[in-house]
Amino acid sequence: MHRISVLVMLAITVLLILGTTPAVTRAVPPSLKAIEARDDFAGFYKDRERGGLATYLFVGDAEGAAAELLDHYGDASKFAIGPATYPFAELWAVQDEIFDRLNELKLDGIDIREVGVDVIGNHVRVGVFGSLPPAREALAEYGDKVRVVWSEGGYTGPEPDRRLTAVTNRNGIRVRITIDDNHLVAGEPIWVRTKVKNTRDRPVFYTTDGCEISVPFGGQMVDQTWWPGVPVDEAAIEAQGREPFEDFKWRAANWSNVGDETIHLEFRLKWAIGREVMACDMVGITHRIPPGGTVKQRLRWDGLAAHRLGPPPDGMARISGSFTPGRIGGPNRKPIEVTLDVPLTGGLEPGRVQPMEAVDAALADPAFRDLIDPVEIGKRNDEVIRFDIEHHAWVVGVCGRFDGQKGYWKAALVDPDSAEVSSIIDGPVGKNCRQGPWPEA
């Protein structure tokens, strides 16, 4: 965030200054913008105790500042220079970080009512309604840059909303993940946003593939897994003369990414929404974030378990991402990881058929076994497990090229409530396999 005008800055801080000598503040005159832009500038106020004297605060010896101020005012008696410990930009950055953490602090039971930069005190003032020790402990990392005080006034910062946020700060790089609500709802798409801010005094570089995602992230359920179905003898599958039905099940499980039983959640860029996969060019692109610069992106969850496996069950989802500094050919840097745990509701009903249960149900049906028995599994065809919400059915089978025809399905439709095969599909449907086994209207 850029430096705000002193008028806005002091409008925030007048109410925060302790004691009986509040200052009337105003903006830095236009011709003094160079003063405000100095790295050592720490604030400006009108000192009532000294007849409204224009007072400028600087870190260090403020070399050259007196000459610039004298050039503007023409009389050294019209202004004063005072010392400060922290430049205003540094305090403003701390205030920004606290704003970013509002929801996190609220979840920890810390009721923040005020946040603002106290120019005269040269610190960020945080007003808390309630017990002060927990708030002071939560903000201890900022040292004397932050002063936590008791407050019963109305909140003066941004209105806290329902969004959940996780932030990791390391070596001058701040990585944030924010979800557009305080929970996920199965079947309801939602955007997840990332932000990388460079608070260093030098550029930060990072490298991406063709999708140019600065903070790659994904999700998974942490307290729920897919039921594995009837165990498969993997040793027999790897051996010669393997049983074709076990081969099909093993391949289908791995193709749909349920082989490890993990329930995955996938997030996509806008252009990839609705596509079978989000394919990214295998290239290396180096990006630059200038000092004080930020990179923002958003990706969307479609409300379903990854790879078209229908609604996930209720539970706790974990969204994990990382930002990796560095450029092509440069030294490897340790990723800056950020993790956000989010409740998920409205999911798969207890007792509803899961992916591998649907496969077992299909393989138990003689008609389906007869259908795939002669198929050369994995040769010019793909194994499929998917849940079709519109038709309320599990699709289990293979799709590929058969008898010289593309988009040819050999599949069973399994009822998600009863685990019974409702019908068999054997033939082309006139479109790409990725679009499903339903004939065009």
Give a brief outline of the structure.
With 441 residues, this protein is of the alpha+beta class. The chain is built from 10 helices and 22 strands.
Secondary-structure topology with pairs:
Blueprint (H helix, E strand, L loop, with lengths): L5 H8 L19 H4 L4 E7 L5 E7 L5 H9 L5 E6 L3 H13 L1 H6 L4 E7 L4 E6 L3 H7 L7 E5 L13 E7 L2 E7 L4 E2 L4 E9 L5 E5 L8 E9 L8 H5 L5 H12 L6 E4 L1 E2 L16 E5 L4 E8 L13 E9 L12 E10 L9 H9 L2 H7 L8 E8 L4 E10 L2 E10 L6 E8 L13
Parallel strand pairs: 2-3, 5-6, 9-18
Antiparallel strand pairs: 1-2, 4-5, 7-8, 8-10, 10-16, 11-15, 12-13, 12-17, 14-16, 17-18, 19-20, 20-21, 21-22
Helix pairs in contact: 8-9
Q: Could you explain how this protein is built, in words?
A:
This protein has 441 residues and is an alpha+beta fold. It is built from 10 helices and 22 strands. The chain has a 5-stranded antiparallel beta sheet, with no helix packed on it. A hairpin with a 4-residue loop joins strand 19 and strand 20.
